[in-house]
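task queued by scheduler; priority normal; single chain, no ligands, no partner chains; default sampling; output format set to structure tokens
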Amino acid sequence: MTREALDERLARVLPAGTLYAVGGRVRDDVRDDTGRADEGANDLDYVVTGVPFEELRERLQRAGRVDLVGASFSVFKVTLDGTTVDVALPRYERSTGTAHRAFEVEGGPDVPLVDDLGRRDFRINAMARALPSGELVDPYGGCADIAARRIDIIADRAFEEDPLRMLRAAQFAARFEYAPTPRTLAAMRAAAPLAATISAQRIADELTKLLTRARRPSIGLEILRDTGVLAAIAPELLEGVGVEQNEWHAYDVWHHALATLDAAPGGDLVLRLAALLHDVGKPRTKDGPHFYRHEQVGAEMTLALLRRLRFSNDVVETTTQLVRSHMYVADPELSDAALRRSIRRIGVAELARQFALRHADIAGSGLPKRDDSNERFEERVRAELARQPAFCVADLAVSGDDIIAAMIRRGLAPPEFRGDQRVGNLLQRLFEQVTEEPESNERHTLLALLNEYLTEPTA
């Protein structure tokens, strides 16, 4: 269902002049009006004024399924033809602590819309649009901030009331390429230690938006560094500030990481995380102009950081592997067997990301590209993949069951044998043979080789 259809359906069951669209949707509509939008808003949030709670519930039920998700907040989830939206009564909020849920809430039909908007974080987010008339309600100057490309808080205590707003300020600044006002930056510096109280999941959510939606995520990360917020949530990233590199880099470790991050294709969280973290181990391994094993140390640091921030297991494992492998040798003159081993080490599934990370790393050096060896190596890899050789034991034309059966037939194992380390060792030997000679990956050839191996004294 389109947004316009949702608006019309809700307006039809509510009294005239009571329904308002609020949130990022309104902000991005205004940004679109000024030619500055980069994406449409996905959130569909509404506020209804002047309608008592029970009457609002009854009216909304005429439009679709209604579920109450916040009795004290008077928030309904309304599902219309498979699309779920939030519809709420206006409310006041007063912070009673540093936790995001430590609020006293007072809501109801008599709370003025301007007060509901006033509890929000930034002026660009404190606008509403009357439906269906389309009239814009902008009591705090959000339009002016959008026109001026700036981010300003509504209240001086905005970050004390909810420290996550500091991360939101940074990701909005990066996504929209707006500048936080001096007042906003001063408030962030004052509240920066409170960032340590934000839950890991909420930090990960905001970092995900920053890394995947911004053309230049470095803008937001520099704001977090400058205000002290980054020191509270990911201090290991700051170890690279001022750490000079060798002649192949124009920047220190920190600024190289940011340049690599910006050069990495957007929309891919894993790739952008890997770009940010690929050299995170360098400060701890610096030995003059060298950084021995920094990819191994960096992988360990990446694993610890992403686990601490509660990223999904898949994101953690894949990002860590990209960091660990980012120093792969891209030698276009490798032998065919060595090339296949290189592909195995990188992992077929992650070749595209690993190559993209290498290109971003080169761009992030700040110096001209030296030669085309990476491109020639990648071309050889693509040609090898097209041949479809075996890249893992599972690609062999025989299996562990075949080896178990052969061992039983030769009396090397009892009839009830189900396998042990010998089976794995034999599979690995066959795999190495196939790596050297891909044409040997035929069932009859491998079974013949297996019989030879089994006749050896150590079989």
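post-processing summary
- The mean pLDDT is 93.
- The chain has four domains: 3-148, 150-233, 265-387, 393-455.
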